[in-house]
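Exam revision sheet. Question 4 asks you to relate a sequence to its structure. Input first:
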Amino acid sequence: MTCSAWQSRAGTARATPDMPIQLLDRDVASKIAAGEVIERPASVVKELVENAIDAGAGQIEVEIARGGLDLIRVTDDASGIPENELELAVMRHATSKLRSVRDLESIGTLGFRGEALASIAAVARMTIVSRVADSEGGHYVIAADNEIVERGTQGAPFGTTVYVRDLFKNVPARLSFLRSPAAEATRCVNVLTQYALAHPDVALRVIVDGRLAFHSPGSGDASHVLLEMWGPDTVSGMLPIQPTTMGGTTVTGYTSEPGTTRPRRTGQILFINGRLVEARILYYAIADAYRDIVQRGRYPLVVLFLSVPSDEVDVNVHPTKAEVRLRREGEVIATIQRAIRRTLAANGIVAAPATAGQVGAFAAPPIPSAPLDAEVQLEAPPLFDERHSRESGDLGPDSATKHGDSEGKRSEFTLRPVGQVGLTYIVAEGPDGMYLIDQHAAHERVVFDQLLAERREKGATSQGLLTPATVQLTARQLDAIAPLSDLLSSYGFEWEPFGDDAILLRAMPASLKESEVSQAFLEVLDEHSGSEIDEVALKGQAVPAGSSDSVAQESIGGSDSIIASGADAVDMRERRIAATIACHSTVRAGQTLSLAEMESLLTLFRDANFPRLCPHGRPTMVHLSSAQLERQFARR
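Answer key, structure tokens:
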């Protein structure tokens, strides 16, 4: 592009001399301000529920229609708004929670900016109906485009009800950035369940499109809310954190056993002084507490309630009030880590030795993944039971011969197992030095590739359960089953309804460990419920070349593709389900293997052409060449 062309293009974004500086129209200014506070329907729900909690509500009912775009209704039994304050409540910067600048230094309420109702009224039609204790009836105002369009009296129970209709109807551009109504409804429910956790003494009912989606009884016990959120199978893997105090910071909550994890941070929920917050540094503190305990790319479920002196927390960082600054950040981090580590230690959970970092110092080059022309030499003694062997490759004594007969000469590249390090890494000797193989990651990748290939060629093999497994489901998990039904069946799952909130699993993928079938099924549903799944996947489209999806990254070129050769149409959902099944079908870190079992696993790994990464993107193998070893021992 020439200089003149660049100047011409750049000039189109600049103000010209005939566009003088002027004050924005009030309506435009209010919509810009509203955009900072009200990003989507869940933002409306958050602001209205915070107002209800601040007003002292003991019971709150929320109704959502068509993802909140048609209707959001929040009803509480709090103190109500006097008639003479109703119109003032809709004005920007009108609040009962602040009086002076000094109050900003020690905020004890969830809301304080006085922007929520005004912002909602700028982008929707809002009706507020309220009745205070000494009033004979209720009063209402209707606001739209930041104007009061109607006011009056009507019968009403004590407390306040806010109706929000036609959200973003006057800002159509905002609608294009929203997801489907179902996904937006899920976001709303997520916000509400999290506030129910922070305030378990408040009874909360959530109705989505006429159906009860969530209910917290207001018992005051956060574990009851967790049961409603995640179901008994997941909550059984949660450990209560005893109050831990350092300085002025106290931490309580729940943290999960290492085996109860998710592929994203959706199960990590943080509250500071009852406020739902996001703080990247606190997520890092959690990750560091679980270092060497959970595998890379997996996130433990953690719910933390932090009590911090209000004058040491700055919540006035962003209009959404989700981001905070901490004056004593180091103290808060140390308290979180001590609380989690003490809880894990009290339950006999000890971190594995940190051997991986020592290997990393060699900066070993990647293992070649292309096949080498030669014969298979290893015999493969049995590694698992007969059922598992059918799915993970023939592991009998003549397995090498069978592979040779079907595929011709594969490789002379022989790895001879020597032992294990930390019951996690297989130490093997090879043609050019030493090899460290992550036993879980390597086996997981082998099973993952086999699942995808088998499903494409003949359909996955199903294994019936002698005793059907009863699986309790949350409302969100129930909603996720229908769109995934055909895909789950194609992988070998068979089930039937069992009451209103449970299913009976009657069959599973043949490669899956029976002891982990319920956890694997729930994990698939959690990964694909609501807004967390990519919209492309919801439409069943293949991931295009160049996708930024973490699992899809390795599919761009090379023989080490996560999507096997010729399978470019395998979409995101298929890969995620296959990765979850594979994860629960394989040997684990911490599992003792005999030399014969290691040989079997290395044979499977070799016949898969030594893939560099597991389905979740972790390395499967580190190579220390003979030359590198000689340099380390000063022999060269």
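Marking note for examiners. The chain has 20 helices and 24 strands.
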